[in-house]
Amino acid sequence: TITQNNGNKASITLNASDTLNDVRKKLNKAIAEDLGQGQYISGDHANNLVTFVENPTQGSGMETVKGTFLIPVIPESAGELTFSSAEGDLIDALGLNTVQNSQESSYNVSVYNAHDNSVIARNIKTSENMLCGVIDKNIDVEFDPMSGVNAIWSDKDKNFIFVPESDYYSTILHVVKNNIDFQVGANEGERITIDIGDMSSAGLRISGVNVMTSERASKAITTIDRAIKNISAQRANIGSYENALESTMENLTVTSANLTSSESRSQY
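Given the sequence above, the corresponding structure tokens read:
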């Protein structure tokens, strides 16, 4: 079983009769198609996601050891792979080692109002492909790790190199309010606005938590702690909304009682 860092999984079965080329094809299909990393490859090189070294290269390339498989990950740490098997001996037999550590993709982001081109934020560096609370305190924007970048196969280095599509990457985000307004009074503006964020596992970014290695389990602690804080903050907001509504209901009840009493006296 191959587990990607976003939680997606793919399984392959290796048979005693498989040739090395069969193993390469199965690994490549699982990573390129089942896990979707082939979509990030320019041209017809998705078949090069897993290569078998027959003729080692000299110099700085990766294919320097004959008889080995090379499995590059795309896109970067979001595409990190963990291999596991019901038979632990199989994983030991494959002898998987990290040749080069992955890195987080990062972007310097500037945000403009699409209506008047005014600057909202300039040169904000993203963390884990997330732009949090810049457009609005309640809005987080997640970037595809390969936004504006092409992965191109280098025959010289026998590896993928990453090149920008242009000097900058731009996109338009249409923001729509999703809050609930309660009219709580007789006059204009007497209302309570309730905002409830996305508390789903995807919204909290815990749907793809990976704990298959000690390093990833350690990162998962931070992710889960952040989700707990977001849930606690949302619960506190809901509590304040509830208190505000109850207070408004009590005031309206008193007002209604006073109005009824006033009408009774005037009729008498």
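The chain has three helices and 13 strands. Try to locate this feature in the token string yourself.
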